[in-house]
Structures are given as structure tokens and as C-alpha cells.
Amino acid sequence: MAVTLEIVRDSFPIAGRFVIARGAKTEAHVVTAVLRDGAHIGRGECVPYARYGESVENVVAAIEAQRGAIEAGTDRMALQRLMPPGAARNAVDCAMWDLEAKRSGHPAWRTAGFPRLTPLVTAYTLSVGAPAEMHAAAVRAANRPLLKIKLAGEGDAERLVAVRAGAPHATLIVDANEAWREDTLAAQFAACAASGVALVEQPLPAGQDEILAHIPRPIPICADESAHDSASLPGLKGRYDAINIKLDKTGGLTEALAMAQAARAQGFEIMAGCMVGSSLAMAPAVLIGQMAAFVDLDGPLLLARDREPGLLYEGSTLEPPSPALWG
Fold it and tell me: What dotted CATH number matches 120-318?
């Protein structure tokens, strides 16, 4: 069935600053694909990510290049062949899922094969900073059961000690965002073990992580920048214990579900992750969260303003999305 496509650029202010090893930002710039068939509307949001050469402009251009096929009624499976993995395809794919649910009256989770959706406990992210700053942030978030700690390399041991002192009862996962180096890896792992870290995410730069297959891994290691879609998985075996599935990397929910199934079959644990976006970006990822050992879908919690209606968070507990939002 033919549809009309609208491409919308949106910005959401971040509460304070979001800081990782690669830099800081104060706004989340997103692109939303809106599909209309006259009676129903489907929406999908993506977050262009400069680490992968993406910008709002080139993501909009990539979607625009497929306008003819999209408006002619191409389906999700054909979309996988028309567009490569990445943010642009994610927005369109998730809009197709939403439109399909609205047309059929069947929720997206049922189409995806889930018997139901259950609430999820999400990580809450602490930006990287000086140890004293991170200690104060940890104290403010100490009642949250799962904290994700952004690290940056030099000084990370002190940061971990500060965070653990501020949140003594929280489960900690850390994300180095490719900032560690081979010669300090053993020391960084030791510092994580001393602070009771449960998972280390992307310690080394993608493409420079072969050493992970040859050294002891005292803590499970999760691939993020090294893991994009199902085709990434064979190269991760022996190096990583888990993979972070983000819809902006896989190019949408369709490939994310396939990747999650393939990852589980190959023995990987799953983290359901996100970029910093609104509730519309998080909603389809809730389906991946149903399959995940770790959930990191806190994007809206980091914003000063979210979409309405948005997802419902009770502390760190994330409720499944309402049909008014997505799916």
C-alpha cells in the first residue's frame, strides 16, 4: 500500500552535559521518519552518530534517496536490501513497524514473536569527569540498581573508586568508548575487578581488539563499536562475551532482532543499548531488552525534555511503550 513520507529534524536538550571519552554534547539531534497511509501514522526516530560518519544532513539525504521506493510501499525486508545498516535505515524501519502495528491492530511485539512485554530495569549513565564530580553524581544516583560509568583512560581507577564509594550497592558496568590501550589493559581490568564491575564495554578501539582473544578476561567484555549487525558476529568470537545491540547501528528493529537471535545462538550475552534520543527511539529497543542480560535504555532520563507521550520510567524501571508512542 502506498504511503507518504515526511522527514523531520528534531532536537532535545540534555539535562546538563553528556560526556564520554570522545567529547561532550548538550543536545540530542535526531531524525524522525513519519509514514502516513491516509488513515494511520507510523513513526521511527534515529540518532545520527559522528563516530560512524553520520550527520543529520547525510541521514536525511539517505532517507530522501529512497523516497520513491518507500512511498511506493516497499516493505521492511526489501528495505534491508535498499539501505545499509545505520541510523537512516533505523528511522524508516521502525516507522514501518509502527505503521504495520497501527494498520493491523496487532502490537509490534506480537508480530516479532514475543508472548508479551515485561518491564525492564535500565542502567543509568554517569558521564565521565573528575573523580569528585563522578562521586557526587554516583551519590545522587545511588538508589538506582544499575549504573553505567563512562570512562576515558588515564585516571579511570580513581574514577571507579570514587563511583563505588558514592554508590556502594549498585551494580556497575563501565564503558571506555575505545579509550583504553593494550599496555594498560591489565591494570584497567584489575581496577574494575577491585570495584566489583560486572561488565566492561568496548575497552579498545574497534579494529585494534585482537588482543582480547589472547589475554585473561577477568570480567565479561561487551562489544559496542566493534558490533554493528549480524555480519559483525563471527569476528567477535573469542574476543567478547557480550554484544551491545543498538538500533542505530543495526539499521532498525528488523536486523536487531535477527542479530539478537544469531548472537544468542553463538553464545553471546546481549546488552540492549541506545544513543541519547527520545522515548520514540527507545520504544522499539524495548523488544531487544526482552532478550538482554543488560539493558541500557536511559536516553530519555538524560534529557531535559522528552516527547509526549513518552515512556514511563519508575526510577530505573522502564514500562513497555504505549501504542500512542510506538508499536
Answer: 3.20.20.120
- Residue 146 one-letter amino acid: L
Distance CA 294, CA 285 (A): 12
Task: Please pick, among 25, 102, 237, 246, the residue that the annotation labels catalytic.
Answer: 246
pLDDT of 89-143, one tens digit each?
999 999 999 999 999 999 999 999 999 999 999 999 999 999 999 999 999 999 9
**236 close to 223: Cβ distance less than 8 angstroms:** yes
What is the rounded CA–CA span in Å between residue 312 and residue 279? 9
Q: DSSP states of 78-107 as a string?
A: HHHHHS-SSHHHHHHHHHHHHHHHHHHS--
Q: According to CATH, what is the number of the domain 4-105?
A: 3.30.390.10
Catalytic-residue membership of 237: no
Query: b vs e for 144-161, b when ≥16 Cβ sit within 10 Å of the residue's Cβ?
Result: bebbbbbbbbeebbebbb
Distances (CA, A) of 280 to 64, 190, 283, 318: 20, 38, 5, 13
Whether residue 150 lies in the annotated active site: yes
Helices (H) and strands (E) in the chain, counts: 12, 14
CA distance 297 to 316: 10
Q: Which of 25, 150, 237, 249 is catalytic?
A: 150
Is the separation of the CB atoms in 4 and 35 below 8 Å?
yes
- Strand duo 313-314 + 317-318: pairing: antiparallel
pTM as predicted: 0.96
